[in-house]
Amino acid sequence: MPADLRAALDDYERALAADDLPALDDAFADEPTTLRGDAAGLLVGADAIRAFRGTRGGVAPRTTRRLEARRLADDCWLLVSVHAYDGGGSGLQTQVWRRDPDRWRVVAAHVTGRTRAFDRTVWRTVGDPMYQGAYDGPLRGLRVAVKDVVAVKGYRVGAGNPTWLDGATPERHHAPAVLDLLQGGASVRGIARTDELAYSVAGDNPHHGTPPNGALPGALPGGSTSGPASAVATGQADVGLGTDTAGSLRVPASYQGLWGLRTTHGLVPRQGVLPLAPSFDTVGWLARDGATLERVVRWCLADGDDAAPGDGSTDGSTDGAGTRLVVPVEAVEACDPGTAEAFRAWLRTAAAALPGCTLAEASLGPLDAWAADFRTVQAAEAWRLHGAWVRAHPGALGAAVAGRFATAAQVTPAQERAARERLDGLRARVRALVADAVLVLPTTPGPAPARTLDPAALDAVRAATLRLTAPAAVGRLPALSVPLLTVPSPLGPAPVGVCLVGAPRTDLALVALGRRLAAATAVPARAAAAATAAAAPADRTTTGGPR
Amino acid sequence: MPADLRAALDDYERALAADDLPALDDAFADEPTTLRGDAAGLLVGADAIRAFRGTRGGVAPRTTRRLEARRLADDCWLLVSVHAYDGGGSGLQTQVWRRDPDRWRVVAAHVTGRTRAFDRTVWRTVGDPMYQGAYDGPLRGLRVAVKDVVAVKGYRVGAGNPTWLDGATPERHHAPAVLDLLQGGASVRGIARTDELAYSVAGDNPHHGTPPNGALPGALPGGSTSGPASAVATGQADVGLGTDTAGSLRVPASYQGLWGLRTTHGLVPRQGVLPLAPSFDTVGWLARDGATLERVVRWCLADGDDAAPGDGSTDGSTDGAGTRLVVPVEAVEACDPGTAEAFRAWLRTAAAALPGCTLAEASLGPLDAWAADFRTVQAAEAWRLHGAWVRAHPGALGAAVAGRFATAAQVTPAQERAARERLDGLRARVRALVADAVLVLPTTPGPAPARTLDPAALDAVRAATLRLTAPAAVGRLPALSVPLLTVPSPLGPAPVGVCLVGAPRTDLALVALGRRLAAATAVPARAAAAATAAAAPADRTTTGGPR
After folding, report:
1. Which residues make beta-bridge pairs with B496?
2. Quick one: CA dihedral A475, A480, A485, A486, positive or negative?
3. pTM for the whole thing?
4. Exposed, middle or buried by CB within 10 Å (0-12, 13-18, 19+), for B197?
5. Which residues, 6+ apart, have CB-to-CB distance to B493 below 8 Å?
6. Are A310 and A256 within 8 A, CB to CB?
7. Cβ contacts (< 8 Å) between A128 and chain B: which residues?
8. pLDDT per residue as tens digits for the range B298-349
9. How far apart are the CA of A211 and the nearest CA of chain B, in angstroms?
10. Residue ranges of the Amidase domain (chains A, B) (predicted)?
């Protein structure tokens, strides 16, 4: 092993220990072909690696226990090292180093950190299982991640906030929404994280960290059903049980390429579920595929006592033929250009793919105004429910949600009343539209933002998102997000959902329609993967190695 | 990317999907320099990789989502691929391929599988924390893995067996051993796995899998406190709370390079702890370092109501000077040659390092006979406690433990009585030896066996192990395993413990002595690591790359 390579490796370890970002950046080749991968995903290009490193905040103290060096070419070596962490556990690091004119540099790295007991950004507690469901039933084999606002017998509700958790007492009963799943044969895998008091759609949390985006490394997971979404997207659970007030199921579904259903308001009992704004609060589910979601919906919306489909109003027997799809034009205009374009392209395919399916446009009116009124009513209700707690626990909430409550405290009864009256207009409008049609729009105005986004920009994303998510909430309508779009993003190709909004109690029919649209318009996953892989040699092969 | 390399990669993926071992073996260079690493550790050499593959049992179905290829030299390419698993989640694979005369082969691989919610071979359930301890106290910050034979309030005891778990009801109180730790400020991280009914020392479990050995990839973890040991060794917990009847704390400590204390019989209350053989059952702890173990012992053996050292009999104030170390000759002779040699070399250092410390030899008599009598009494007691359950649940136990109970059922009262009488002789003998000395011997006759060991060979290891562990159990004496030896093993350099056995209630003094011996004789970890790393270029660097 060349002495100067050894020195370069030692320098790198020192820079890592000191979190010396300029030195670390300089140790990696400053090229678009440089690679760095770990359990969270693969970063391609020096820029992506730099951005990641800026938010990592250093690595745990470690000592090199073993080093294996292999000469691959005169100017190219493979260094594989095993590290022991001061706090226990070991890690593995594989690096390909290349001799540049001035020094050795890393052109590719693969890192495995020490094994954590579990990811505390995703879960608060997990078990194998935490609760075993019925030994037989249509949901047998499904592992459920329960959002930490829903009562699980024997456990406290933490609501994404440690102070809240400290003041909570163990629940004496499962929430009916949990019990339904257990009775259907699903098991509870664990209690998963939520944004604080479910009052956010970003998925970040200042107390226990931000869960990973299972579809887009480096991106926010979406919230507030953040933990269940990350658990499902990463395969740690099969079903996420969560809530949706302003988009808390639809947004993480859109950001992480999942299926997510906000149910008709009042259809799933909210007993044992921490409320945020009862006029809009709903319970629903996340899944990786439409078939799983449909199993869950069929069971849970069929009174839970048998596996038969529900009554006519929630029956999914329509084949989608003759469905009127109505696009709210303002919603598409509110999207970023890439998402709007991907959505329009998808629409053309969808219209052509379903026989007899018609496509129309409609106006929902001023989305910004609706969203503002929605936020006013949501805030007033949230403050009535939680204001006393917020006031009694100064400093307990993170900055973003604390700010939201501070604003909420200022809403006057007159403002609330006026906003409610205006929302009655929106409700009538959107309900009229879905009386004989299904609204179809992008679930979110764009893909998941980077975890590095600053608070002001994040707040702007939230405002833009509520423009799209508020109408279904105001209409008390079921809304399904289906992972049908792929759009460009600074973090790479990213999923965005297509949202279907239907009449009250058409939840199951919506899922069935979503499955048919997906089957008709989505490139099958395996074919897409094959195409990607086949294209790789031509598209992506570069000689990033020795010159 | 060369077409034949692409074909080789595709062949490899197909072989992986089919778990076609010959094809997989052939895809890797058949050389001692070939590398394969993952979260469990680094395998060096084609033989080690082959052995691992034989026990892996295939990989989960997956699709390649992305492939990055980099030419490193004419005959050497780096291929990095991202996989999506059918069951959700993604994985990352980095491979260095070399063109051999006949075909392309992998010379190095680094694999990251999908993220699991947690390792169910290590834990049954985990939380963040599962139970918060006192907010202040000498054990503050320590995360405890509780062996699944100890009562944790609200949870069932599973005893390493799913049928047992099914029949259990939630515990209404913490075991005192748990409560002590919580009151000292430690938190319960989770309930960790155990060998079935704690009736084994290997650490394997047929129901939920065998926990990893945190010090020696591919090796058994040791048991029956297997899960806590793996959790502590891998940094997923700081303290393991377990039990030791026949070596169940000492053996995993020895196998995984941990500190492990079997306490004086009766010193730690056994309320809320599933018994196996009450004449020998004890409660104790595992830790990665002596300082942590001493914190725990000082607190838990000081009546738990303050942090002061215990009474004189358990005081650790001796500085080790003047200590008489007595080596039971039969114990060393019962070890494998490498372990015996490492132990003797360590003894010479130890004698020289502690001023005034004297070294002597003594005879314990026929270890095989003692161990046989110990097993007879243990079996009789285990059958009295659990025989009815075992009979009522045919097929519930794995083969090894079921066989042990089948044998136990045959023990006659006369045999038990005779064995007890003979053990009285051993007890008197060993107690006389420790009256003014500390027994010192290897904790186990050798390092952790490979996970691939067949049942008959494993049973032989158990028998050989009990020869060394039974005397302290029969004597009802405290016994501390300190990670002081490194011995050769087929899986690489492996830890083996040095066991110190003292008079009753000298538990804390034993830990203090162990720490002084460790400080005087162990190569400090950082220095050892530095030496290893420094030696690497000369010792291990090989040109495994293109010829």
Report:
1. B485
2. positive
3. 0.90
4. buried
5. B486, B487
6. no
7. 118, 120, 123-125, 208
8. 999 985 333 333 333 444 445 555 689 999 999 999 999 999 999 999 999 9
9. 13
10. 133-510
